[in-house]
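Predict the 3D structure for this chain.
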Amino acid sequence: MIGTMVAALLVAQAGTQPSQGTQASQPLQGKVEVLWLGQSAFRITTPSSKVIMIDPWLTKNPKTPPQYKDLAALGKVDLILVTHAHGDHLGDAVELAKKNNAPMWGPAGLNQSLQTLKVLSAELAPRMNKGGTIEPFGGGIRITMVHAEHSSELVWHNPETDKDEVHVGGEPVGFVIQLENGFKIYHMGDTGLFGDMKMIGERFKPDLLLIPIGGHFVLSPEDAAYATREWLKPKTAIPMHYGTIPQLKGTPEQFQKALGKSSTKVNVLQPGDKATF
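Done. Predicted structure below.
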């Protein structure tokens, strides 16, 4: 099964690097801004000022700064990425999609359920799957959906019965985001270790890794350090998905200690902090 996924990903990704002489091969001079809002929620502003929200669990997130619980504080959002259906990742994505008329890209099964339940229209919940790549804005921005090792059930509150229902949420995913200037971000979503992380590292060579370290539901600090050092080898890693609930006990200090001597710089943010690249 893993071999099939690898083959599909490699075929789908043939030609990810812009060819010489194309407009996309000319790097832009703008910077990349990454704003962490707690758990796995990030706002990425690209060099051409496109705004991408990832896993926007904000209004009910205990770690999100109060000002960002007002979704208007995010400004205009151009595109939303959701790694899986769990509430601490899907979060406020539906409201943001409607508010900004912005497509929400997530696992195909999740978006199909949202369409079927009439939560979002097909235009706001388009479907893609692992190995697929979209170029939503042109100009060199490419987003590829990759594997994650987790679960993805969708818990939906039925307004007619006033009861929760469990629906298909598709399979969990991560995203590799290549920006206009060639800078690559790998948001891993919720995941445990899996051997094809090595392939992802070799294939995409991420500059920035957004990696869960909390343990219990996701990578422990030690497993996160192993994946970073041995397989992914990014220039920079930002720890995420820790400290929001008691089970997520892993800390950035434990991650850094387990990482040891490494070419990867660990950038520890507090919710509300920004990093520029």
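The chain is about 20% helix and 25% strand.
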